[in-house]
Amino acid sequence: MKLNINFRTLKPSLMPTSAKPDAVFVYGSGSYLYDENNKPYIDLIQGWAVNTLGHAAPELSKALLQQSSMVINPGPAFFNTPALTLAKKLTDHSCFDHVFFCSSGAEANEGAIKLARKWGQLHKNGAYEVISFSDGFHGRTLTTMAASGKAGWENLFQPKTEGFRKAIFNDIDSVKALITEKTVAIMLEPIQGEAGVIPATIPFVLELKLLCQQHELLLIFDEVQTGCGRTGDLFAYEYYGIEPDIMTLAKGIGGGVPLAALLSKKWCSCFEHGDQGGTYSANALMCAAGNAIMDRILIPGFLKNVRMNGQHFSKRLTELSKRYQLGKVRGRGMLLALDVGTLSALEISAIARENGLLVNAPRNNLLRFMPALNIGAYEIDDAITILDKTIKYAIEKNQPVQLT
Ligand SMILES: *Cc1c(COP(=O)(O)O)cnc(C)c1O
C-alpha cells in the first residue's frame, strides 16, 4: 500500500492531548499493525486492550458491514435486534439481570455512580458517597476523574464532583475507616490497570463483599479493562467467587469500536424512565460488533486458550526478568505487566517500537501487555525475542563506557 499523503501538514490540526510517536498507523491484521511505510509491528497494546480479536478481525468487519447495510441506529427510544440479543447474551453469561449500553467506559461508570446514588436516595436515606481507591482509574469525565485516584489529578479542573472517598487498595482497614451513614457503594477495578496491573487479592475482595452485606452497600466492579475474557475468565469477578451488584464493561466488549455497558442486579436496578439515556445508547451497529465479539469469546475452549497462552506469556516474561535481573511479572490471562526495575519503561517502549514491537509503559518502571486474546504462542515468542533484544540494548546503553 503506497500512500500519497503529507502527514506533516495534517498533524497540527489534531488537538495535542498526548505525546505521540511519529508513525501513522494505516492497517493491521491480528497481532500485527503497519505504519505508513509498511513497517510491521507486533502489537501488544491493541488500542489499549480494546481489540479483543486483534486488528481487522474478519468476524468483526463482517458484522459491521452487514449491520451497517441493514440499520445503524433506529434511536435509543426503540428496540433493535443486536441490542436485544447482546443484552440477553450478557445476562445469560453473568450474574446480572439488566444491561444499559453506552459508548465509553467513563460513560458506563458515570451510569454506575448515578445508579448507586439513585438507590441511596430510594433506600438509604440519601446516602451518596462512593468509596473508591487510590491509584484507581475510572475515566476522564469530571465525575469519573473524581472517582479515580490517579496521581496528579487531585487538583485538576476544580471544582470536583463531591462524594468520593479514597481507600488504599488491598487494605481492608482503610475501607472500614471510611464507611459512614453517607456511604452507598464501594467501587473498584478487580485488577487496577492504569496503576500498573495490580490485582485485588482474594481475601480483600471477600472482605469487601462482606462489608457491603453488613453495611448495605453496593459493590461496583469496574471491569472496563478486565472484562470480556481479558483475564482468562469471562469476567474477572468470577475468579473471586463472589458476585458484584453492579459491573461496567467497555474496551474489549466492542473489539475496537465504541461500545460500553452498565450491568446491574435486578434488586438494585432502580433507574426510572428518563433517569438514564444517550443518543447512541444501544445503537444497532455497535451492538452488532459486541455480538460478534461475544460469540467468539463464548466458543468453548476460547477462554482456556487465553489462560494457556497467558501462562506461556507470563512464563516467558519471567525468564526474561531472571536473565536481566528485573522485577516481578504481574497479572492474569492477557493482562500482564513486567517491573523493569531501574530501567526506564518509557525508553524501552520507544526502543521496542523502533524494533517493531508496541508495548505500553503506564509507569516509569513498568511495561504493560494487553495483546489480542487470540494471539498465538509463536507470536508471543516473536515479541519476547524483540523485547529481549530491546532490554539488552537498553542495559548496555545505560552502562558507563568501559575504558580499556
Ligand atoms: C479505560 C478505562 C476506563 C475508561 O474507559 P473509556 O472508554 O476510555 O472512557 C475506565 N475504567 C477502567 C478500569 C479503564 O481501564
Keywords:
seven-stranded mixed beta sheet, four-stranded mixed beta sheet, 404 residues, 12 helices, alpha/beta, binds pyridoxal-5'-phosphate
Provide a quick synopsis of the model.
The chain is an alpha/beta fold and 404 residues long. It has 12 helices and 17 strands.
Low-pLDDT segments: none
> Radius of gyration over alpha carbons?
22 Å
**Structural class, from helix and strand content?**
alpha/beta
List the helices and strands in order: HEEEHHHEHEHEHEEEHEEEHHEEHEEEH
Please give the order of strands in the largest beta sheet: 4-12-11-10-7-5-6
Bin the strand percentage.
15-25%
The helix tally amounts to 12
Question: What layout of secondary structure does this protein have?
Answer:
Layout: H1 7-10, E1 25-29, E2 32-35, E3 40-43, H2 46-49, H3 58-68, H4 81-92, E4 98-102, H5 105-123, E5 129-133, H6 142-147, E6 164-167, H7 172-176, E7 183-188, E8 191-192, E9 198-199, H8 202-215, E10 218-222, E11 246-249, E12 260-264, H9 284-297, H10 302-323, E13 329-332, E14 335-339, H11 345-354, E15 357-358, E16 360-363, E17 366-369, H12 377-397
Parallel strand pairs: 3-15, 5-6, 5-7, 7-10, 10-11
Antiparallel strand pairs: 1-2, 2-3, 4-12, 8-9, 11-12, 13-14, 14-17, 16-17
Helix pairs in contact: 3-9, 4-9, 10-12, 11-12
The structure holds pyridoxal-5'-phosphate (PLP).
Pyridoxal-5'-phosphate (PLP) is lined by residues 104-106, 109, 137-139, 189, 193-194, 222, 224-225, 250-251.
